[in-house]
Amino acid sequence: MTDIKFIGDVYPVQRIVTGLWSLDRALGFKGENGVPLRSLFELYGHEASGKSTLAWYIAAKVNPNGTVFIADLEGTIEEKYVTEVMRNAGFSGTIRVANYLEAKKGKDALRPHEAQFQDAIDSLLEQDVSAAVIDSIGMFWPLVDSAKDLGERSVGQRAKTVADASRRVAAWLRVTESPKLCFYINHVSPNIGGRGFDTPGGMTKKYAANVRVWLQRIESDIPDGSGNFLAEFRVQKLKHGGASPERKGLVFFIPGFGISKEMTNVFDCIRLGLAERGAVIKLSKFDIKKGKDEMVSMGRIGDLVEKAQEPTKHVELFKNFAEALEKYEQQG
Hints:
This protein is α/β, with parallel strands linked by helices and 332 residues long. 30% of the residues lie in helices and 28% in strands. Strands 5-4-8-9-3-12-13-14-15 form a nine-stranded mixed beta sheet, with helices on both faces. The longest helix is centred in the middle third of the chain and has 19 residues, at 157-175. The chain is globular, with a radius of gyration of 22 Å. The two termini are 28 Å apart. 38% of the residues are buried. Residues 141-155 have low confidence and may be disordered.
């Protein structure tokens, strides 16, 4: 076979491993697992499905000592919570939030969302900023954007703002010296006069996004009103390759803690049939003496969740689930 000569200035696609087994593989390509950097990453879904938390978790992995810039357009994030989520994800850098007030004629005034959005985009050109999170672009969606036949000249202007920004984000991510990520948090809204739902922001945004992931809560209060919940993700779009035949998986959330890599591994094992879920979680392990696989009790879900919040103290326990997933992958 003749070798192909490639001429031109093209940035290589680099990936970061998040530690979330199914997510890393769903976004991987030909043996390289993880989230592709230099991507405009859209996370969308219904309210309280874990979108922002997942964005912070992944952002923390880009550069644990870097800076993550957040445009909090909804005004809903809490400093203690976002700090805790990112610390538990291994982040020890700086979190910057766009200013939502500005001085006008000696008085404080609210800054337009567009200005905060622009701050986030500009931050991508700063050397120390490793990721930017816009939460959420749904704030730009006018209520009558689907009713253009009404003759409103201003209809669609907010979607146009997001579309224009998306073109710039996509271009700037390609020219920054260090690979970065930009996250759009998005909501879903019912189609007017049709079935299904829309995600606001304009068509250009959809074309410009390199990665598009849908997230939905599928099970809450595990085990008994504790507020923990399990979410399912589906990769709707992945421009950078895609070798995995299955573009979906699970993420486990713990209130006040964030995302648990350990508990996500537990439920990935259950999903793949490597473990059984009942009163206690049982994991399939090979018994050398008996020469066969046996289901070994690993503990109750509630106990596992509690231990997962101090993973360094229970490394050996959760290592069993990680090894089961590795063995599953090796066996194809």
